[in-house]
Structure formats: structure tokens, C-alpha cells
User: What shape does this take?
Amino acid sequence: MTNAIAKARYLRISPRKMLGVCKLVRGKNILVARAILSRTPQKGALLIGKVLDSAVANAKMKNMEEKILFIDKITADMGPHLRRMIPWSRGSGAPIRKKTTHLTIVVAEDEKLKLKLSSKNKKKTEDKSLGKTEDKAKNPGRSAKKIVKSDDQPNE
Assistant: This one.
């Protein structure tokens, strides 16, 4: 099973907030996942959408078909914390830890769907090749037939 990977590191969002959106699209087809992400009103959905587009582009470079891709693995891992201080009373301060996320998306081809599409394509090509030869045998062509309108019919 071939796959394609895309990673985004140091995203300024908490991994806990990303995990909810990751669960929505894990295991879904790419087209379905894009539809879900476009209707999800969270910052994480926008970031996942960008990384997903990158993963699909990587898959296309490996000659994989977009219609049969699905999200095989999606992880939102903890990145480093950005440490800041907020002023507190009496000259003291309190720490702020701004969390970052490392996002990884792995897309792969769905083997069952790939077999279905390949069998459908084979049937279509066989039908097209058979259909053309049969049609020519049945209908010799328009020039051989005489088209007679109802007004032009001879009176008997």
C-alpha cells in the first residue's frame, strides 16, 4: 500500500484543540474530509485542510489517484511551549505557556476502491470497443436510408 506524508510543525494551537478535529476526519475519504473541514468552524480545521492539501499534492507526485485516497493516519503531537510572563500583583509575574503542535497526515490509496474503479474502467473500455463494432453492423449509415416526411408521401 503506497502512501504520502505531509507534516506541519510548530503550529500555534494546542494539540488538545486539534485532536477533536482530527477525530472528525480520521479514516475518511479525501473528498469527504475536505467537505467536513470546510464546514467545521474551528481554527484547527483550517490548519488541517492546508496540510491535507499538501499531502494530496505529495500523493499526486507519486502518481496516486485523488478519488481513491483516504486519511490513513493523522496525529497532533505536542510541540515546544513558548514561555511568556504576565505581570501579577506586587511586582511578581505568572508564567504563560503557549502550546504548539506538530501535525502529521498520512494519506493512502483505498485498495478496495482501487479494484472497483479498475474493474469499472475495464468494463467501460470493453463496452466501448464492442459497442462501436455492433452499431456499425446494425446501422450501415444514414446515407443508405431515405428519410421521408409525412407531407412528402405519395398519394395512392
